[in-house]
Amino acid sequence: MASEEAAAHDAKGEEYESEDKIEEALAEYQKSLAIKIKVHGPDHADVAASYRLLADLYESEEKYAEALENFTKSLDIFLKVHGPDHPAVADSYDAIATLYYSQEKHEEALDFYKKSLEITIKVLPFSRRLGCSHLRSLFLRTCSVREKPRS
How many CA atoms lie within 13 A of 36 on its CB side? Predict the structure, then answer.
């Protein structure tokens, strides 16, 4: 029952977000997060997913400090739940790298892109890596960051 309620809040938040009703979306995502913490405790993948939704929303609004805080919370939970070599962890590193890159913090971005790329190479079988657009994207962004002049 509570899981369905949390999912309904997430869906409503996504609907509000698509309508550019940011405050309403934020409120729905926060309600969902509170339910998930109450049901699962603070260290559960569903809680991490809620932090990720909040982070994505903040990033889209260029509220980078709030985005980073929520991306980091999500990452920390995924590390506890899945360990360091899991696609969700790689995706979290990629999200943080992208956040840094969008702020022109290229050195920080590169560090997180590298972590994401290392995990992706380690956990995906070779046959899946060949067609992996995510892997190509990581590689291209990593190269792009390297080409930026250092300040």
Answer: 21
Contact 20, 52 (CB under 8 A): no
Instruction: Supply 130's token pair.
Output: 């060949």
Euclidean distance between CA atoms 54 and 20, whole angstroms: 14
Task: Indicate the burial class of 131 (C-beta count within 10 angstroms; 0-12, 13-18, 19 or more).
Answer: exposed
Domain ranges of the chain: 42-147
- CATH, range 42-147: 1.25.40.10
Summarised one tens digit per residue, pLDDT across range 43-78 is 999 999 999 999 999 999 999 999 999 999 999 999
Q: For residue range 80-95, what is the model confidence (pLDDT) as tens digits?
A: 999 999 989 999 999 9
DSSP codes of every residue in 69-81: HHHHHHHHHHHHH
